[in-house]
Amino acid sequence: HGNDWPRLLNYLTAPHVVVWSAAVASCAIPGVFAPIELLVKTRTGELQPFYHNAVRWTDGSMENDLPMQRLAELFNINHFIVSQVNPHAHILASAGGEEGFASRLLSFLKQQLKGYIGDVAELVLGTQSFRPLGVGLIPLITQKYEGDITILADLYLTDVLSLLRNFTREEFDNMVLRGERNTWKHIPRVRLHCMIEFMLDDCVNALKQQISTGGDNNSKTKIFMESRLPSYLQL
User: Fold this and answer.
1) What pLDDT was estimated at residue 18?
2) Residue 187: pLDDT band with limits 50, 70, 90
3) Could you report the per-residue pLDDT of 1-47, keeping only the tens digit for each?
4) Which residues pair with 17 in a beta bridge?
5) Which of 62, 110, 111, 192 pairs with 17 at a CA distance of 20 to 30 A?
6) Which pTM value belongs to this model?
């Protein structure tokens, strides 16, 4: 359905969906690969369609590449590390965390342009003539491609030209190495954010200890403190 919002699939929202069918659907780029049916496995091990009215699915990243709001609601998290490999994201993503005036200026201009396009789209997409643009093109341009930490892979023209073919083992190993090298510079920030997370959990545990030994009979407070789990344990 062209007007439906992309569906987030995980072990909570779709526990019976077969992983390989979801992966194939996520690779079904509109105009390149045909949409496919999602499959679920029954208790007897049989495969059946996710929907019985032959609904077919395509790549959801065209309209919502990073469903961060939904993930935050499901898993109680507010910090995202994004490994961004979509080729168009290199053009549309802001260079968050990059040093230098030129990088900050480029990020500012990108954000302003995306905001302007979004405002104009909101004004004109209600008309019949421009409504089809609101399904794929406008969300593709205006959506967010960055997290709190965004790892952008190096992208060369040869990579773009070979997107739709199978890579050799040597090319695959080279891409993995390039990805690792782009990740290394972000490791100090990841370590720092983890230290903050662990320190906050130590503070919560200290408060729980004080409450349990201080004779506090407030049952609601005790239930809240005892049921709280660190966010890194919920992933």
Assistant:
1) 92
2) very high
3) 555 667 888 888 888 999 999 999 888 888 788 888 899 998 888 99
4) 40
5) 62
6) 0.68
Which helix (H) or strand (E) segment holds residue 48: the answer is: strand 47-49
Q: Who has greater pLDDT, 121 or 66? A: 66
> In a 3-state reduction of DSSP, which class is residue 222?
helix
Query: CA-to-CA distance for 92 and 139, rounded, in angstroms?
Result: 11
pLDDT digits (tens, 9 = 90+) for 102-134: 667 767 777 777 777 777 777 766 555 555 555
Please report how the helices 187-213 and 219-227 are oriented relative to each other, as an axis angle in degrees rounded to 10.
150
| Both tokens assigned to 73 | 């609601």
The single-letter code of the amino acid at 80 is F
Angle, alpha carbons 61-25-16 (nearest 5°): 110
Residues with Cβ within 8 Å of residue 134, at least 6 apart in sequence: 121, 125
- Contact in structure between 21 and 37 (CB atoms under 8 Å): yes
By C-alpha distance, which of 168, 165, 114, 116 is closest to 143?
A: 114
Strands (E), 54-177: 81-84, 149-152
Q: How far is CA 232 from the centre of its chain?
A: 17
pLDDT at 195: 93
Q: How many residues does the chain have?
A: 235
CA distance 49 to 60: 18
Under 8 Å between Cβ of 55 and 25:
no
